[in-house]
Every structure is written in structure tokens, then in C-alpha cells.
Amino acid sequence: MTTHFFLFFFALCTFSYRLQAENEPCQKVAKTTLHAVGTIYPQYKSALSSQVAGRVEEVYVEVGDRVKKGSPLVKLDPIFFKINVATKEAALAAAQLELKDSRLQLERMKKLWEKPEGETPSIPQKRFDDAKSAYEQAIVSVRQASANLKKAKVELDEAVIKAPFDGVVTERLVDPGVAIAAGPQTKVLELQSHDLLYVEFPIAQTELCRVQEGNQVLLDVEGSQSSLQKIDRIYPHVDVESRTIKCRVYIRDNTIRLRPGSLVKVRLLEPVSDIMEIGATS
Q1: Which domain holds residue 263?
Q2: What is the pLDDT of residues 153-181, one digit of tens each?
Q3: Out of 145, 263, 278, 281, which could bridge 21 as a Cys pair, Cβ 3.0 to 4.6 Å?
């Protein structure tokens, strides 16, 4: 009797548990599917150089300083640039004076050349043509002098190297008194933006079918807390040597103060459904 009761009770419990499992909706959970190693990069990184040659007069920043866009960073000795501006201003004034004289001369020649019909001009045509050519040449000279002055003023302004964006000074390579050349071959400072960082990491070509933009990733940096982000970009091409594809993740909330250049362990989290039915018959 006891044995039959136990069997009946067991069958009843099994039926109730199976019925509950069939009616209970599937829950989505996040599990780690892929592991990768990436590197943190700044959104902007610039090796600053000078547009003009000169001698460094003053350096306003040190490594680690935060600067705003447009802030002065390095100043060159401006004396020669100021002299050049003054010279170009004098050249423009002379050209404008020449233009004024040539205009008056052309007006006089025009009165002597243009006579009523039937009257002979007071001057030969060549004198009128020469006056006209001199006037046109004076106009060209004024335009050229004006352009030269504008260039000189730009060079004077470029004697102060300014921050192209908000960022942090990561390298300082010049000191006062050093003569520098114009152009990218002479690097004076390096500036990085730390407000918006991103992580790039490679995944194998064979794993691309399991990755898509918007997937959640967990970023682990040694010495810092984990950061939950999402994949923002999957590069459209495969690296021919490693047969991998790069993914990019922007770090939108850098409250844990991640730093560019840091090594990052990336764990890709993929939501999956528990499709196994508990107590299903085979």
C-alpha cells in the first residue's frame, strides 16, 4: 500500500513540474562567447610641429598638462616676423601710391587721346596705351603686395603654436633657445584627447558570423574595474596576414580613468535563449 502511494505521488509531482516547465517563458541570459585582446587609443592624437622656422622663446606647457583648443603651447621669437610684417605693410603702401599716380596719369592721357570726331588727338596712341598698361600693372602690384602682407601676418600668428583640440600633453620635445625648422620633420609636442577613448581588438575571420555591431563586450584592464560597453564598428576588410577583422568599441563613460596604450582583455557577451525543455520526452 505504501509503495503504491509513493509511486502515485512521484508521478503527480513529475507531471506538475513538466507542465510548469512547458508554460514558463524562456529567459535570455548573457554568456561569454569570445575572448580577445585589444588596445586603448585616444580619439585624436597629434604630433605638433611648426608651420614656420624660428627660435623657441617660451614653452607654456609640461607633460601631463590638460589644455583647451586654441591654448598657446609654444612661442617662437617673433622679432623677425614682426619686421617682415612691417616691410610688407610699407610695400603695400608704396603699391597703393603707385596705383593712385597711374590712375591720375591714365585720366590725363585719356583726355588728351579722346577728342571729338574730326579733331586730332593731342598725343600718339602709344602714350595712351602705355598709361593704360601702367595702371593695370599697378592694380596687379597692389594685389600682390596685399597677399604678401596677409602671408606675413599669418606667419606672425603661426609663431605661436596652439592646441588644435582639447587634450593632454603627452610629450614635450623642445626647450627655449632651440632653433626649429618648419614642417612635420620637427616635432615639438604630442597632444592626445582623453575625453573619448576607443578600444580596437581583432577577431578571427572564422568567428565573424558570431559578432555584430551592438554586441555587448566586457573590458578588463589590469588595475581598473571592468567596463561594460558595446561594439560600435566592425571593419569592412580582413587583414591578409593575420586573417583577422578589427572591431572598435568607444568608451563613453570613462569614470574609471582608462588610459591610452593600455592592454585590454575583451570578453564578448552574447544573449542566448535557453531552448532546452526541462522534463521533455525523447
Answers
A1: 27-43+196-273
A2: 999 999 999 999 999 999 999 999 999 99
A3: 278
